[in-house]
Amino acid sequence: MSAIQQNLKERNAKYASSFTQGDLALPPAKKYVVVTCMDARIDPAAAYGIDLGDAHVIRNAGGNAKDALRSIIISNQLLGTTEIILVKHTDCGMLTFQNADARGVVEKNLGSEAGQAVSNLDFQPFPDLEQAVKDDLEFLKANPAVSKQATVSGWVYEVETGKTRQVA
Amino acid sequence: MSAIQQNLKERNAKYASSFTQGDLALPPAKKYVVVTCMDARIDPAAAYGIDLGDAHVIRNAGGNAKDALRSIIISNQLLGTTEIILVKHTDCGMLTFQNADARGVVEKNLGSEAGQAVSNLDFQPFPDLEQAVKDDLEFLKANPAVSKQATVSGWVYEVETGKTRQVA
Question: Is A89 annotated as a binding residue?
Answer without folding.
Answer: yes
